[in-house]
Specification:
By secondary structure, this protein is an alpha/beta fold. The chain has helices spanning about 15-20, 30-40, 45-50, 60-70, 95-100, 105-110, 120-135, 145-155; strands spanning about 5-10, 50-55, 75-80, 140-145, 170-175, 180-185. The chain has one domain (about 5-185): Phosphoglycerate mutase-like (Rossmann fold, 3-Layer(aba) Sandwich). The radius of gyration is 16 Å and the shape is globular.
Amino acid sequence: MTVSKILLVRHGQSAWNADGRWQGRADPPLSELGERQAASAVTSEHAEAVAHLWASPLKRASRTAAVIAAGRGLEVRFDARLMERDAGEWTGLTRDQIEAGWPGFLADRRRPAGFEPDDAIASRAFEVLHEIAAACAGATALVVSHGGLIRVVERSLGGDAPPVANLGGRELVASAGSLVLGDRLLLLDPDSVEVTAPRQL
């Protein structure tokens, strides 16, 4: 039986992570710290095993992947199905702005117009993850995506889904057409660079 591993991780800190803004499909770049986080990931123990690399095309993920690819001698393949959840009318807003504009929504777990539901994210995420698992049979793939997508995948597979740190994520084990949750992971050295976990709404 051929077993593949997928390391599904969040991008480095973005400029909007640093500002506390909900990004959704907006496309802010990595912050200066995010660049350092990506560079730290190059030499992580997890990265040493990576043979294939995929990423969301959004800048914060594509740049993270590009830094890792350059350091590990890999090519990056991009897939729009790995993009973050569309946050609809909340794109670019801080928590305080959301509370002011939509009183009670966050506490009641209500969402605004245009907000992409979990089932839509799960559908596209699992479609591409199964394709990646088949393409890298017997090897390890690194997939640089987004916190919202990662947590939907975790919940869909029956796991806990606490907030995801930048360059943090989850190992997935692929075998016989199924994906199984492995451990949470961190793809950087906390002794060499600050670990950030932007608040996820």
